[in-house]
Every structure is written in C-alpha cells, then in structure tokens.
C-alpha cells in the first residue's frame, strides 16, 4: 500500500495505491476531476477502472464535488456516512449549499487559484452508507470512523495496520497550530471526535488542508481549549453581523 498526496484546487487529495486497485480518501472538488484522472493514467500508469472506491467524508464542495463525475467516468463506488436525510435538504439547505460554494471560491481566490466551475449536486447518491467501525468495501484494511462536529456526518478513514488516519476537516492548521474548522455545528460531538482520533495514537494524521501533522497531547489541549463551546455556523455568524450593523445604525441616529 502507498498513499499518494496530490495538490488539489483548494485541498489535498489522497489516493491509496495497491497492485490491483485504488482508493480515493475523499471526494475532492469538481475542479479536481482532471487532476485525479491524469494522475491515475499518467503518473501511476493505471487504468481509470482501477479506482474502485471514492470516500466522501462530508458534503462540502472540496470533499464531495468530484464524486459523481468520477464515478460516471471510472465506475468507482461512492462511500459515505449513513444518514437518513441529505445535508443540504430543504430551502435552508439550498442556501447553505450556495454559501459553501461561495466560501470555496473565496478560498480559491485567497490561494491564488484561477476561477473554476465548482458546482455539484447538493444531494449525494452514495453506493454504500457506512456506520462507525464499518470496513470500507474492497479495502479490508481501512475502516470508517464517525467523527461528527464540523457537520453531522463527518467520517474519518483509518488504517490500523499502517497507523494512518485521514480526518478531512476535523482540524486545520493555522500559524503552526491545530484549530477547529469553520463551521462547527455540534461542539460537544466535535470534542468527542477529537478525543476519538487522539486515542488512536496514529503515526500519521492526514488533513485535507495541510497534509500529515503531529497530533500530540499539547496539540490536542490547544485544539480543545480554542474550539467553540457553542455552534459557530453560517447563520449564527450572519446574525451576529446583522446585530452589529443594526447597533451601528442606531448609534448614528
């Protein structure tokens, strides 16, 4: 087994290579489809049909955006968390989907990336819906861990034999410190997820927006000390800004 790390449009891409198959550890963004396909055919010298499983850790644009298109091209199957409803369901879900796409474009601009089409379906049609501890189909050395908090359905992918775990957006690195991502919908669950990953004592913690990091006791302590105690979401941030705007207008009057 070999884990390849590619520079994606706004995040890192991880492809796990075996002699007879390939595993994509997250669904990437729509802008990454060509990057992934070229890496398989040109760098690995493999058939596109060797890509067997695409994991979607959660529904944000840089983690689910390429999944459907890659499946249509390669025939790979999609794995996601087992949830009864879609993350972007209803009118609020539609607004959140649009907002997340805008945030993705903003991040791309900050990274100096050219503007690209990031649109993808807001409802994921997965082939396998897995629970905590379930084995990834066709890849018996990898298992799914439920690590919610960032959203209600975040999953990580863990290989105990190689002591490596991909945690997607469970944590991000800013100024050489690990911190919680934005948004955090479920603070209590988030803290439990951090503890779960820490207890793995994995040699490699792979992040979507950094690469491999050291997650020792000091890093965990700082992360939990700085993580929000209440939900920090799109709507809450908007309400806070609106309240500030109203106060400013009233103060002027």
TrEMBL record:
Keywords for this protein: Hydrolase
Entries under InterPro entries matching the protein: Metallo-B-lactamas, NDM-1-like, RibonucZ/Hydroxyglut_hydro
Domain Metallo-beta-lactamase: 10-209
Protein name per Swiss-Prot or TrEMBL: Putative metallo-hydrolase YflN
Keyword Hydrolase: yes
Organism: Vibrio thalassae
Classification via Pfam families: Lactamase_B (PF00753)
GO molecular function: hydrolase activity
């Amino acid at each position: 087994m070999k884990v390849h790390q590619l520079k994606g449009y706004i995040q890192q891409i991880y492809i796990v290579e075996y002699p007879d198959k390939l595993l994509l550890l997250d669904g990437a963004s729509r802008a990454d489809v060509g990057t992934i396909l070229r890496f398989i055919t040109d760098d690995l010298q493999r058939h596109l049909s060797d890509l067997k499983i695409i994991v979607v850790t959660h529904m944000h644009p840089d983690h689910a955006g390429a999944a459907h298109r890659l499946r249509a091209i390669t025939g790979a199957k999609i794995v996601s968390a087992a949830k009864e409803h879609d993350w972007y369901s209803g009118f609020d879900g539609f607004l959140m989907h649009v907002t997340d796409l805008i945030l993705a474009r903003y991040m791309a601009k900050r990274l100096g990336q050219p503007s690209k089409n990031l649109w993808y379906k807001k409802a994921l049609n997965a082939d396998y819906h897995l629970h905590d501890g379930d084995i990834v189909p066709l890849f018996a050395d990898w298992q799914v861990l439920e690590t919610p908090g960032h959203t209600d359905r975040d999953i990580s992918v863990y290989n105990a034999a190689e002591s490596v775990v991909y945690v997607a957006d469970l944590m991000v690195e800013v100024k050489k410190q690990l911190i919680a991502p934005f948004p955090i919908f479920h603070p209590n669950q988030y803290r439990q997820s951090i503890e779960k990953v820490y207890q793995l004592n994995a040699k490699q913690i792979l992040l979507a927006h950094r690469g491999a990091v050291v997650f020792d006791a000091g890093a965990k302590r700082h992360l939990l000390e700085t993580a929000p105690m209440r939900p920090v979401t799109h709507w809450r941030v908007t309400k806070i800004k609106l309240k500030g705007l109203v106060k400013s207008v009233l103060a002027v009057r």
